[in-house]
Amino acid sequence: MEPDAFARVMAVVAESDDVILCREARRLGLSKRELEYVHGARVQPLVRGTVAIPPVRDPPRAAARAAQLATPSGVLSHETATDVRNHRPRPRCGSS
Q1: What does the DSSP assignment read for 17-66?
Q2: DSSP reduced 3-state for 73
Q3: Residue 19: phi, psi to the nearest 5?
Q4: How far apart are CA 33 and CA 57, in angstroms?
Q5: Alpha carbon of 54 to those of 9, 20, 74, 76: distances in Å?
Q6: CA–CA gap between residue 91 and residue 27 (Å, rounded)
Q7: How much is the average pLDDT of 59-66?
Q8: How far is the C-alpha of 10 from the C-alpha of 22, rounded, in Å?
Q9: Is pLDDT of 73 > 60?
């Protein structure tokens, strides 16, 4: 892995909740094989075309950012936005 390419990707993901578009990571110099390696080691499923670069500091926020990056004209629902902003855990089905 080219150290400069990895440093460029890390600079981007530091500002985007540890998530980057695969095409952006490729543009910054990561190879397809390196992306596949990172993609296979990810902590949680993300939106197609995005990859989380470990360590992921806040998985729910990273998932929301992946959705936002993959669909730039979309918006987060009020519930998801509240969860991410306030870090409020969602209740599990069947619990009160």
Answers
A1: TTEEEHHHHHHTT--HHHHHHHHHT-SS---TTEEE-SSPS-HHHHHHHH
A2: coil
A3: -125, 145
A4: 24
A5: 12, 11, 25, 23
A6: 39
A7: 88
A8: 13
A9: yes
